[in-house]
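re the bet — no i am not wrong, look at it urself. input seq straight from the record:
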Amino acid sequence: MKFKMTILLGITILVLTGCVTTPLKMPPPSTLNITNINQHPYTAGLFVPQSLKEYVYVKVTSPLDKMSFPLGEQTNEVFKKNMPLVFKNVVEINSITPGRDVDLIIKPSIIKFNSIIPQPAYKPYIATMIYHVDVYNKKGEKIYAQTSTGEAQTSKGLLSGFSARSICAEVAQMAMGNSVQQIVEGLSEADELKNLK
């Protein structure tokens, strides 16, 4: 009888507290290896709103477990590391209001993220990241916009459960990198950014 009460109490606590959310540990993103990029001779202000920096994507992985992806933090870092590929100088700014110290302003946003954790575990882990960037001139006028979809997948053994978390993080970062690479290439070739006044 005591055993049944303990089990009943445990189930009740799980139901009342809901799922357990486990944060993913994601290493800092790296600088992309892109060659033949036209670097604009401008100082770009990178504006990542606080709400984006704090954004966390939560994926329900089972009735009693959730996985949280720190996408805002990763997005901030991946743009900080890779915008210097296409602009001579990049400085972080706290407002979209144009300043005298920058020639233009880059404002990224996340349109959509999706993570597919395979069932059964031998199928590929898949992630999709859709980023959007708006570019403003010194007058605060939007002069360029771009949306890019980065997709990635990997199959690394028959991992599932907690063992698969590192794979989920890795494939998410791959999708983010693919999306940012398209943005870097698009910014590099954008006619709207050539001969900026």
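see?? The beta strands are 20-23, 40-47, 57-62, 65-69, 87-93, 104-116, 125-137, 142-154. told u. also The first strand starts at residue 20 and ends at 23. so pay up
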